[in-house]
User: What shape does this take?
Amino acid sequence: MRTDDLIDQLAADPRAIPAGAVQRRFAGVAAAAALAALVMVLAWLGTRPDLMDAMAGRMFWMKATYTALLGVAGFWALERLARPDGAPRKALLFGALVLAVFVGLGLGQWLAADPEHRRLMMMGGSWKVCCRNILALALPGLAATLVVLRGMAPTRPALTGFAAGAFAGGVAATVYGLHCGESTMVFVGTWYTLGVLGTGLLGAVAGKWALRW
Amino acid sequence: MTETEAALKALMLLGLDGDAPAYRLLLSQLGGRLRVYFERRMRDAPGDVEDLVQETLMAVHTRRATYDRAQPFTPWAFALARYKLIDHWRRRKVRATVPIDDYVEVLAAYAPEPGSAMDLDRALETLPERQRNLVRDVKIQGLSLAQAGERAGVSEGAAKVALHRALRSLGERMRGRADG
Assistant: This one.
């Protein structure tokens, strides 16, 4: 085909693109990912029995804030990485800072505790399944994020896939708080963090393969 | 350069709002610049230049939602072009981190092969006279396309097309010789 003909053809389809189209699409994915994780919690894991009491307490919201901020960092990084010339530095630094602050606080609390309580604080009653559950809850969101990204223009597939995983993992971990009754910062700082980072790793591997265009 | 950026960005913003004539103008203006960009970087495969121009224009169109209206337009468009170029090299199994034209230029500057000039002359001799003169005028003597076209008695556009054909067949002949 001649280039002029191609240009005629492309210019014949000038559908208007609203400002903020990228952000809007990822916001839609976040809502869908949260809904999918919620359905999985309700149908598969069940909510924690003391949910109403827990929601009146501080720790429930600390957990939710931490994982939601990890999701926000992922969203921000994606909003940059979806563009061919996007610089994700600030978003990644923000994510690292959120992680460092929360893990640091958790470690402080843990070190200040009585040594005989430390093991229970770290392992809780569900450390074996925490990462796995977060990863499972994040899968629909991760898949949706990768599908949306394929229509955009990421030029760094592995890093973009990692951001997609952190984004989906953050959303899923926040919803997982409705099921999980663990209430120490060191537990959340360890196992929730590993769940989100694990989803990021999975996203990076999938992205390397799925985000070529 | 900055004036060009301002003009292209204005056209892009109009295009994003659904203005078809502005968008068509943007694509054709950008197409010309992309052609120069790829020609400079793909002297080894001039036949693929037009394919890459078209692939990039298509990416500009289908992925235009990823353009951030607050940012300059040119870096966005050429980031797409760069991605397409690297992808092209990857498919041809050339190391994407080594720009091939730099490599050729370095070789030409520091280790000129004694035979290469003779080979070029011999390959040139096999071209039709009009094409041969065009190649000599533009690529060796450094005349502009308009000047070379005037000497050959054709328009600038015709000279450009003829030169493109000449370079392609020249490349094929020289490659054929190297293989044989």
The longest helix of chain B spans residues 156-179. DSSP finds nine helices and no strands in chain B. The two ends of chain B are 45 Å apart (CA to CA).
